[in-house]
Amino acid sequence: MNSAIQKLAAITGTVSIANGIATLQDGTTIDLQAGQKCIVLVEIDCGAIHNVRSNMEARVVILDQDTEGGDKDRIMSINGQPVYVHNYELSEQNQNDIDPTAMQSVVSQMDEAQI
Length: 115
Description:
Blueprint (H helix, E strand, L loop, with lengths): L2 H10 L3 E3 L2 E3 L5 E3 L8 E6 L2 E7 L3 E7 L10 E4 L2 E10 L9 H13 L3
Antiparallel strand pairs: 1-2, 2-3, 4-5, 6-8, 7-8
């Protein structure tokens, strides 16, 4: 749990936090991610996926049309086309998956360059 959520829990007497929703003692719920956009960063080098990160929990599905040499269990037909499926579940449980600071840094640099 990040420090902002811990502070919210201490101030409000939060009973639970799950899937970005805080539930207070009186039953009120607060969407902690309201208004936030999900930013997903997929780092690729020479066609190989090296890293997938996000600023919040997300499921990322990448369909690769290059199926040669791929694990046959991950090749399937989607919309009538054979594809190699990469499926990533990004969650708070794996601290390397969720990195809001890194995502904001990338977006800020892109905005500065007007990309």
